[in-house]
Amino acid sequence: MSDLFKNYIDGLWQHAAGGETFTDINPAINSDEIGKFPNSGVEDVDDAVRAARKAFQTWSRRPAPERGDILKRIGDLLTERKSEIAFQMTREMGKPFFETKGDVQEAIDTAYYAASETRRLFGHTVPSELPSKFNMTIRRPIGVCAIISAFNFPVAVPTWKMFPALACGNTVVFKPSSSVPYSAALLVKVFEDAGLPAGVVNLVQGRGSMGQSLVEHPDVNVVSFTGSTEVGSKIGEVCGRMHKRVSLEMGGKNPVIVMADGDLELAVEGIIWGAFGTTGQRCTATSRLIVHEDVHDELVGMLVTTAGKLKLGYGNEDDTQVGPVLNKSAFDTIDKYVQIGKQEGAKLATGGNRASGPGLDDGFFFEPTIFTDVTPDMRIAKEEIFGPVLSVLKISSYEEAIEVANNIDYGLSSSIYTNDVATAFRAMHDIEAGITYVNGPTIGAEAHMPFGGMKATGNGHREGGWEVFDFYTETKTIYIDYSGKLQKAQIDNVAD
């Protein structure tokens, strides 16, 4: 009999109002049923938003450093429970234990960073154009924030969003991916145990249109979404119509450029980690390799050899390097793109099949896959696959590399391997992406740095770092006139 889990609304763990549930399974061992979770509906969303709206009245008035103290306690508890949470995350979504520990550590770093920022929610003071008058700005929280996150970073990504929102005085309704409900429940239990007041964070689990109900709710003021470009575009339309502030973190088709003077051994390490870490299920995954013709064959040979040695398996086993993909739907999508690549004329250098063998037959395992002879117009070079598939494109110059890198709808992360400082600095400016790494892979965000992209990747906002605190606050301008008389700004300031 599976464990039965609940939503968390207004400080209470409770079943969905309609009584419906869905089942969560281990993608590496499909026979391992993790539990049943509430499949929430409109009534549950209403209850959660109502609780968040009520809690906003007191939470927003609490001194910001006091809010920071609670965030620090959350970071302390995450530190204590790091291995326990990471183990269950691996069981639930598949990536190896060493990766999920890093996922939790990112949340810990973000908790401490956000806690410290509660003492630096700066405004500005500026001179007035009139005498005996003082001008300043302050930051004000906005209200109820809907947090909608993807499956691949079940703890890191939601906390990127929630911790800054809470630090700024907002309250939250959290709708995690239905593929990682247990990780979300473990995270919210930490919030509860840290003493976060009732209603400040509410967890509503579910599949289907429940997320749409949350986005469209009239009492939700802010929406922060991580997921597909298709869904994000629809959310953006709704928020535009309803005048909600919205941050969209969507797809990527991230390039690594390797120039002829690049360190090939270093590049191989980075490309393998970037392409096959998290089984390629990252918005920042290295999905395109743009390599100079002078080193193309040597580099591809090194990559094929290294990829063929990767150990696939259940991520909670010590020697596992690559876990399963999320579910059958993800597996089928990856397989479809492999067939498309073949049909388009790309050459399959390694992989391309379901992985089988001891410990693999009861899960959704796909071989690390590398295509060569890929051209920029092929679908496997343009569309996000979200799996362990790397497309290799050959170029003959830096200018061609930049043209190929930028000839894409997305603009999240990017990388260049070169030992020429001038080339590196040119690439920092020339590549159309929100993130550029020099001599490193396309993955590996740091909590105190802005994260996000351009083009179809996002709508201009950034998560992480100092910029996210601007997203979760309104700027209020204040004028204090102590002249004792009516001053009419420009009318009094400029003589005819």
Summarize the structure.
The protein is an alpha/beta fold and 496 residues long.
Task: Compute the average pLDDT.
Answer: 97
- The total of beta strands comes to 21
Question: How helix-rich are the residues, as a percent range?
Answer: 25-40%
Task: Specify the structural class.
Answer: alpha/beta
Count of DSSP H/I helices:
16
Give the total of domains: 2
Strand neighbour order, sheet with most strands: 14-15-16-13-12-18-19
The name of the CATH topology of the largest domain is Aldehyde Dehydrogenase, Chain A, domain 1
Per CATH, the superfamily of the largest domain is Aldehyde Dehydrogenase, Chain A, domain 1
Tell me the name of the CATH class of the largest domain: Alpha Beta
Strand fraction band?
15-25%
What is the CATH architecture term of the largest domain?
3-Layer(aba) Sandwich
Major sheet details: 7 strands, mixed
Instruction: Characterize the overall form.
Output: globular
Unreliable residue stretches: none
| Rg | 24 Å
What is this structure's SSE topology?
Blueprint: E1 7-9, E2 12-14, E3 21-25, E4 33-38, H1 42-59, H2 64-80, H3 82-93, H4 97-117, E5 125-126, E6 133-141, E7 144-148, H5 156-167, E8 171-175, H6 181-193, E9 201-203, H7 210-216, E10 222-226, H8 229-242, E11 245-249, E12 254-258, H9 264-276, E13 286-292, H10 296-308, H11 328-344, E14 347-350, E15 369-372, H12 379-382, E16 389-395, H13 398-406, E17 410-411, E18 415-417, H14 421-430, E19 437-438, E20 454-455, H15 467-471, E21 473-481, H16 490-493
Parallel strand pairs: 7-8, 7-10, 8-9, 10-11, 12-13, 12-18, 13-16, 15-16, 18-19
Antiparallel strand pairs: 1-2, 3-4, 5-6, 6-21, 14-15, 17-20
Helix pairs in contact: 2-4, 3-4, 3-6, 4-5, 9-10
